[in-house]
Amino acid sequence: MYINRNQYQERHHKCHPAQGQVLLLLDILRLRLGEKPLDEIFSGTGLFYQDLLMPNTLISAEQIFKFFKKAKRLYPQDDLPFLLGHRLWPGHYSQSAPLLSFSQNLAQVIDVFTRFGPELSPLLQPRFFCDNDHLYVQWIDAYGMEDLTDFMIQAHMSGFISCVRHLSQEHWPWQCYLSHKIKTPSHANVSVNLGQFEDKRPINVMRLPIAYMQQAFSSASPSLFFAHEKHLTPCLTQPGILFKIYDVLFNNIDKDLSLNDLANKFAMSPATLKRKIKQHNSHYKHLDDHAKLSIALYLFKEKAWENQQVASYLQFKDTANFRRAFKRWCGLTPSQWKQA
């Protein structure tokens, strides 16, 4: 099955409603910085306050990133991602946002995110998967945000936890694994907002015991959920190109897609795909390695597979090649990682 141009967005495409994360972050800045002139806040971002207030204004991921970087410079405090995260969801800037507020349980929340993810979380998109014991939420960079990644991971993980806590009225035992290092002065802030966490891990993922998936929310309103759902149109925004590529690689892991194979699926030449990925601050090998690493870590940690089993599943010719690749991915051999 080919993926056509209408099934993904690129970072320069103006496809995201302006009444979203930018305005949320703007109001946080104005609360923290006082009456700083709007012209000064928006300078160099390509955004204008009056345009953002217009209901049909669309902006690009590139513009959002520029504004976020400016916000971090103006307010360089470690609580900024959490201030933003707590305001992300249920939210208001997506046609599907009310469905989150009316959801009966976490399983229904996940269904809403799965169907409307590019609207609810356009820049850092979640992938959900379950086994017999746990729910996993992995966060994927959709557009190549570079040095904003750590900030956005903290905002989105804390935002998802905050949303579920708001709906359930309970604190649930989330475990958060972050790929970046948390500076010592920030540990307390991260712990308050994420709960149990580990930093310097190979991938950004959250985990929760599966029993919580069906636990009823006290705020649930099934009738309002189904009434609102009837009036929804299909997701108006397509996922970012890097998320789409990662999704294809992950779902075809048994085929070990080459750059040529991947380009063929996207109905373009390898050179064109390579150029597009580079424009989004990534490269094919990184995306392919990331997909394989995510699966390898799951099979090691949750399924207790041996090296040979994982190597075979990921289409490596032998275990030695897999060990070398694994060390390249996360700096440790499989045996070292299991003991860490």
Pairing-aware structural class of the strands and helices? alpha+beta
Which sequence of strands runs across the widest sheet? 3-4-7-5-6
Percent of residues in helices:
40-55%
Please write the string of helix (H) and strand (E) elements.
Answer: EHHHEHHHHEEHEHEEHHHHHHHH
Oligomer: single chain
Entry summary:
The protein is of the alpha+beta class.
Description of the molecule:
By secondary structure, this protein is of the alpha+beta class. The protein folds into two domains: 5-229, H-NOX domain (Alpha-Beta Complex); 241-339, Arc Repressor Mutant, subunit A (Orthogonal Bundle), CATH 1.10.10.60. 51% of the residues lie in helices and 10% in strands. It has helices at 21-33, 38-42, 49-53, 61-74, 80-88, 97-102, 106-120, 149-168, 187-194, 222-229, 241-251, 259-265, 270-279, 284-301, 307-313, 319-330, 334-339; strands at 14-17, 58-60, 124-130, 134-141, 175-177, 196-198, 205-209. The strands form two sheets. A five-stranded mixed sheet has the order 3-4-7-5-6. A two-stranded antiparallel sheet has the order 1-2. The model has no long low-confidence stretch (mean pLDDT 92).
Please name the defining characteristics of this protein.
single chain, alpha+beta, H-NOX domain, Arc Repressor Mutant, subunit A, 7 strands
Give me the secondary-structure topology.
Blueprint: E1 14-17, H1 21-33, H2 38-42, H3 49-53, E2 58-60, H4 61-74, H5 80-88, H6 97-102, H7 106-120, E3 124-130, E4 134-141, H8 149-168, E5 175-177, H9 187-194, E6 196-198, E7 205-209, H10 222-229, H11 241-251, H12 259-265, H13 270-279, H14 284-301, H15 307-313, H16 319-330, H17 334-339
Parallel strand pairs: 5-6
Antiparallel strand pairs: 1-2, 3-4, 4-7, 5-7
Helix pairs in contact: 1-4, 1-5, 5-8, 11-14, 12-13, 15-16
